[in-house]
Design goal:
- The complex is a heterodimer of chains A (535) and B (143).
- Chain A is of the alpha+beta class and 535 residues long.
- In chain A, strands 19, 21, 23, 24, 26 and 28 form a six-stranded mixed sheet that branches. In chain A, strands 5, 6, 8, 11 and 12 form a five-stranded antiparallel sheet that branches.
- In chain A, a hairpin with a 2-residue loop joins strand 9 and strand 10.
- The longest helix of chain A is centred in the N-terminal third of the chain and has 20 residues.
- With 143 residues, chain B is mainly beta.
- In chain B, 5% of the residues lie in helices and 52% in strands.
- A five-stranded antiparallel sheet of chain B has the order 1-2-3-7-5. A four-stranded antiparallel sheet of chain B has the order 6-4-8-9, with no helix packed on it. A two-stranded antiparallel ribbon of chain B has the order 10-11.
- The longest helix of chain B has 7 residues.
- Chain B is flat and about 60 Å long.
- The termini of chain B are far apart.
- The chains are: A alpha+beta (535), B mainly beta (143).
- The interface between A and B is large, with 85 and 54 residues.
Chain lengths: 535, 143
């Protein structure tokens, strides 16, 4: 048995080889768009077969290496053959296939010119260059993006199987079928329009592949739909898109020879291009809170990139912890948002969390982006006994954080009158419920979840009589968001007659029905409410 | 009159896909462009754009090779720019006019492009649809 193996090894070492190299033509771009450079890059990790020219029979198979080279043994001698490379690979931690569309489902291939093997079975296709004009290069650029994604994933995912789930990528010249990930098909689709050709937009290719990664290795509850990087979105959508931005940048960061500025995300068009920067990020006014995809992407980027942004970005590395939070922790949760990532990261890397979230007095990565995942300075105020005093200016940017967090506030009334109180300026997708309690801290006087349909802030009002301390309780409404933050305001006025809000309140501006705070309100000072600091 | 918006191209056209399909980010620009007249002779491009961002929009028409402008303006810059450009195509060949809206704001550039096709015709694929020895469909290209 041992002898047989030795003979086989000798035979293999001496076997004739058919060799060659496949390259594809790329289009280089930067923040200014395509530079005009069109270098040839190796077709890496692709399936190769040696095909007999006369009948198309397969004479041998192999794969290209990192340089695009292949070597296939066992091809018969004196045979007219050609080498065929597929935009496909299954094995070695990869599983990707680039096809034209779901109906024909044809895998992109390219063939060398025919050549005749020697009597011993040696031969070479030489270097085969797949050009843009020839039509194959775009598909192989898409394939290389998939290869890069799997190769990067292998550096952070110790459990990546030799044969991962299949990543299907569809593209064909002229297609207007959108650039998107379809979770039902488990497939990514790319535009091929002359006006919007995505086949060379590696940033976009890897963004959509990032959606596939989330679907295949984590959990994604995005409602989907149109979105922009400056919009406030459903927190599930902003997480999904922010993750995809991050994945695109993280993969490109792992290939510095090809991508000089991975934090820059470019989308090239037939004329001109878009770009924005995860570092910083671009749109500093709009890219805030957990409900903005650029803020989410920037947060993930800052957790893993160099500690390079002044006093708030003190972290670097952590790519494996980010992956484990996404891969191991998020699938156990529901309605996935940045909150779930934070909870998962806390389990994976508790020691870095202070530098991830920051606190009310300390600016760190998340709160530098307007994401407030920490206990506010009024904590503990989880009951009437520890209620925080609500001053004339109200309370700003109070957080609902931690399981079942309740924020209690106290106010003292010195005579007959009424109180209106409301939450506003909700952040991180927050959705409040506001309740007004009598002095016993138990008797509910008024409660409100949503001020109006589509407005998740809250508004309560009630007539109060006599001197005493009354309480306001703010909680998170049930729904997608567990945390969030809010401003709380209150105003006092004369006793209510009927239920309609009245003019003539003081203490704070009255709320507008939409939840925005008007510039001015009634100025009748009754002097019947005394704000009292409570210890 | 032919009307196109990029939003339709990016997120509405994948209608066969599931409702929860994430698509690539759209630029925060509304762009409507249309073509009227004879695409093989004299025609007119009309376009207007706007953005939610506090910035001007640069609106431009980029004519393909062989097509010449005959009247109007090929570019406009304003908060809500609009333009009409008369042009002439030398023949009935397939060509594509790009209408581009660009906003520079917040350290970023956002661009939206609508392609208006003159004399639409299928784009020939350089590959050959065939099957390999295992019977799998392949789209084979030869350099």
């Amino acid at each position: 048995m041992r002898t047989a193996a030795f003979v086989l090894a000798l035979s293999s070492a001496a076997a004739a080889q058919v060799t060659g190299t496949f390259r594809y033509q790329d289009r280089v771009y930067d923040a200014g768009g395509f530079t005009g450079a069109q270098p040839f890059r190796p077709v890496r990790q692709a399936e190769v077969e040696i095909v007999r020219s006369s009948d198309g029979a397969t004479m041998g198979t192999g794969t290209t290496d990192g340089a695009g080279a292949f070597s296939v043994a066992g091809v018969p001698g004196s045979t007219d053959v050609f080498a065929r490379v597929y935009a496909r690979r299954a094995g070695s931690g990869m599983n990707a296939s680039v096809r034209n569309n779901p109906f024909a489902a044809a895998v992109y291939t390219a063939a060398s010119s025919p050549f005749v093997t020697t009597v011993a079975g040696n031969g070479t296709s030489g270097t085969v260059d797949l050009t843009i004009a020839g039509g194959a290069a775009p598909a192989f650029n898409i394939f290389d993006a998939a290869v890069k994604s799997f190769q990067y994933q292998a550096t952070v995912d110790v459990d990546l199987p030799a044969l991962p789930p299949l990543l299907l990528l569809y593209w064909e010249a002229g297609t207007a079928n959108g650039t998107y990930f379809d979770p039902v098909a488990g497939a990514v689709f790319f535009l091929g329009l002359a006006s919007d050709p995505d086949q060379y937009d590696d940033d976009i290719l890897l963004h959509e592949i990032g959606h596939w990664v989330a679907n295949a290795f984590s959990k994604d509850d995005t409602p989907g739909g149109s979105h922009t990087v400056v919009s406030q979105l459903d927190a599930r959508l902003s997480w999904s898109e922010g993750w995809a931005h991050y994945w695109s940048a993280a993969v490109r960061r792992a290939f510095p020879g090809e991508y000089a500025a991975p934090a820059i995300q470019v989308d090239n068009f037939g004329s001109g291009n878009s770009f924005f920067d995860l570092e910083g990020p671009s749109f500093p006014v709009e890219a805030v809170m957990a409900t903005n995809e650029l803020a989410v992407g920037a947060a993930l980027w800052d957790i893993t990139d160099a500690a390079n942004e002044g006093t708030f970005d003190l972290l670097s590395g952590n790519e494996m912890a980010v992956w484990q939070a996404v891969n191991d922790r998020i699938p156990l949760r529901t309605e996935i948002t940045l909150e779930d990532f934070r909870a998962g990261l806390e389990l994976e890397a508790p020691l870095i969390m202070a530098d991830v979230t920051g606190s009310e007095g300390t600016l760190r990565i998340l709160n530098a982006l307007g994401v407030r995942y920490y206990l506010d300075g009024n904590e503990p105020n989880g009951g009437p006994g520890t209620a925080a005093p609500l001053g004339p200016g109200g309370a700003a940017q109070r957080t609902i954080f931690g399981a079942g967090d309740e924020d209690w506030y106290a106010l003292t009334l010195t005579g007959e009158g009424s109180v209106q109180a409301w939450t506003s300026a909700l952040g991180d997708g927050g959705n409040t419920t506001l309740e007004l309690f009598a002095s016993d801290g138990f008797t509910l006087l008024a409660a409100n979840d949503d001020r109006a349909p589509g407005d998740p802030s809250s508004f309560v009002q009630a007539s109060l009589s006599g001197t005493g301390t009354f309480f306001l309780r703010v909680r998170a409404s049930t729904g997608v968001i567990e945390h969030g933050y809010y401003d709380l305001s209150a105003a006092v006025g004369p006793p209510l007659s009927g239920t309609a809000p009245r003019a003539g309140y003081c203490g704070a501006s009255l709320p507008a029905p939409s939840g925005t705070v008007p510039a001015a309100a009634g100025a009748l000072l009754l002097g019947m409410l005394a704000w009292r600091r409570r210890r | 009159m032919k009307r196109l918006t990029l939003a339709a191209i990016l997120c509405v056209l994948p209608a066969g896909a599931a409702a929860r399909t994430p698509c690539k980010p759209s630029p925060p620009i509304d762009l409507v462009a249309s073509l009227s007249g004879d695409p093989g002779g004299s025609f007119e491009v009309s376009a207007r754009a706007s953005t939610v961002l506090a910035a001007d929009v640069e609106l431009e028409v980029i004519l393909p090779g062989g097509v010449t402008a005959s009247s109007g303006s090929a570019s406009s810059r304003a908060r809500r720019p609009g333009l009409r450009l008369g042009a002439r195509s030398p023949d009935g060949k397939r060509r594509e006019v790009f209408v581009r809206a660009t906003v520079r704001h917040g350290g970023a550039v956002m661009t939206r492009v609508v392609g208006l096709v003159l004399n639409d015709a299928p784009v020939p694929s350089p590959g050959v649809l065939t099957r390999n020895a295992r019977g799998e469909a392949i789209l084979e290209h030869r350099p």
